Structure formats: C-alpha cells, structure tokens
Amino acid sequence: LSMTYLEYKIRAVPKGFTKLFFLNWPIILLLCAAGAIGIIMLTSVAGNSWHPWASAQLKRFFVGFVLMISIAMTPIWFWKSMSVLAYITSLGLLLLVEFFGSTGMGAQRWLDLGFINLQPSEMAKITLVMVLAFYYDWLPDERTSKPLWIIAPLAMIFLPFFLVLQQPDLGTSLLIVLGGGVMMFLAGVHWGYFGAALSLGVGGIFAVFYSRGKDWQLLNDYQYRRIDTFLDPSSDPLGAGYHITQSKIALGSGGWTGRGFGQGTQSRLNFLPEKHTDFIFTTLAEEFGFIGGISLLIVYALIVVFAIIAAIRNKDRFSSLLIYGVTFTFFLYFAVNMAMVMGLAPVVGVPLPLVSYGGSSLLVLMVAFGLLQSAHVHKPRGVIW
Fold it and tell me: Residue 83 contacts by C-beta under 8 Å, 6 or more apart in sequence?
C-alpha cells in the first residue's frame, strides 16, 4: 500500500528470462513468415538452387534474429540514451562513404567491411527515428510547434538527406525525409508546417523538371530517364523502360494462381533484371499469382497492425514514437517497392523487406524490430489497458 505509483510501474517491468514471455510474438512469427517467403523465392530465382542467394540470406536472417532478440532483452532506457550517439555514428559512416565507399551500379553507397558491404543509408533511416523520438520525448508539448524548436529536427532530417543524395540515392534520401516528416507529425507539430512543406515540394518538382538540360540541372541524367520511364515506359522498352516493361509482363502472366514454383519464365530466362533484389516481388507474383502476392501483402499488413497496437498501448512517449517510426519505415519499404514494380512509382531501388536479397537492409530492419520489441517488453505495466 505504501508503494508509489512510479515504483509500481518500475517493478511491473519484466526482468531476466521472463522478458521472453512479454515479446510481441505475433510480430516475430510474421517476420519469420516473411523471411521464409524470401528464402523460397531466392531459391527459385537461382534455378531451384540453395546457392548463391538463399543460403547466404538464411545466415543473415539468423544473425538478424539473434540481434533482434538481444536488443529486445536490453532495457529501452539504454537505447534511448544511445539515440544521439547512434545518429552521429550513422552520419559519420555516411561521410566515410563519400571518401572510401565502394561503387556499384553507378552509385557510391557501400562500405566494404570485409565480412559485409554495409550501406550506411539504411542505418540512417532507423537512427533518425531514434534521435527524433528522443528529441520529442525531451521537448515539452507546448514547444513542439514553436518555430525555434522546429529547426533542430529539420537539421536532423536534412543532414542525412543531403549526404545520401550525394551518393547518389534519390529513393533512399526521399524515404529519409518522409520518415522524418512522419515523426514530426506524430509528435504533434502543427499541420501548417506540413502545408508549407507540401508547397515547397510542388515547387521543387517544378524546379527539377525546369532545370533539365541546364547548367544547374538538379538530378542526374539516369534519374531523369527513370522519370521518363515512369511516365511512359513504352517510349524506350529496350532501354530505360526495360525494367518496368518486363516487370509488368511477369506480374500479368502469373494470373490468379501463378505458373508454379520455379516455373516463372521472366526470371528463369533472365528477362527480369534484379530478380533477386528490387524486382523479386514480380517473381513471386509470376510463380504464385495474385494469391501469392496478396498473401505476402497480408503478412506485411498484419505486422503493421500489431505494431500500431503496440504503439497505442505504450504510454511512454519515447517508446511509442519509436514504435511508430519503425512501423512507418517498414511500411515505406514494401509500399514503395510494390508500387515501383507495378509501375505506380518510379524505379528508385528500394528492396522488398525480408524478401529481397541483401545484408544491410535485412540486418538493419531486424535491429529496428529489436528496438520495437524492447519498447514493447519494457513498457510500464502498472498501467493496464
């Protein structure tokens, strides 16, 4: 009876191995389901072979899973205290890319660490979420929309944005801005700022098109070709429009039930480019049809639903904002990728989460869900909801 409310909340947090029972197991099982789909598809695109992609992806998923559980077992206050350091580290890695980064497909985006090619821009998406959650947890509510207190989060967003844009990686840089903007919106920043940002965005789009061919051209030529392809893929079906043209053929040929495992002609005959990374969803749709594609989408949607429920139930402001940020970042991954391969968005090189082959995106995403689990496990359970 003499125990204070705060003490009750602290003592209500699970300790030791009992934390395993408080993990958000529906999310973990759904992540494993998505990962299993990825292994199956990577086996298929390799000609029903376990090598070279499926075996490596399984190892990375296992490492990522261990990381996720380890991070989940660590108290959320520790990750909160590490937020600023993690963000600064990601900026430092982005700067290292400028000087020592390895180049692939015309872009300098990776750091060769020997055992893995690390893509710091993937890390920046999550560390930005962490530092913004930390900032708005520290900032009193009445200052959230004050102009003076808007400067810091904008600087936090645009520093990694410009560094990633220089690589060049337009797709990831835009996702960083979107993710940061959503964090500000969820923190309670007044809608008027977003209206002004939208107006600037429209003006920026006009400037991008107006600058084409001029000395101060804002985008690279290949990025303009991607825009042209998005607007009219048939204008260059064997050149810039080849990717999306073949992707649509694969999507359409799958029908309702697909051609069957390993029977996708577009991928097996190598008509489909980047079949194991950015365009792996089209292989899934070709081999398992509409039913296969919608099944994966349902798995993704359920992950988002369970994560949002966890964010709503968490009464700690930092934890709630962190969960929302991780969830929206995950949503952007699959929403942009699926829109891209269906011709609803320009091709920007965004992987399909947990399914596309890749080390950095998979490991960073599992780390992000580890943070989400930590916030869920260590939420104050003195409040019954």
Answer: 127, 130, 131, 133, 134
Spell out the alpha helix ranges (H) of 139-220: 147-165, 170-187, 191-210
Integer Cα distance of 279 and 225 in angstroms: 18
Instruction: Give the whole-angstrom CA distance, residue 222 versus residue 66.
Output: 39
Q: How many residues belong to the chain?
A: 385
pTM: 0.87
pLDDT, one tens digit per residue, over 284-314 is 988 999 999 999 999 999 999 999 999 999 9
Q: pLDDT digits over 348-385, tens only?
A: 778 899 999 887 889 999 999 999 999 999 987 654 33
Among 335, 208, 70, 28, which residue's Cα sits nearest to residue 36? 28
C-alpha span between 59 and 78 (Å, rounded): 28
Phi-psi group of 190: left, alpha or beta (phi > 0 → left; psi -120 to 50 → alpha; rest → beta): beta
CA 325 – CA 176 distance, rounded (Å) = 11
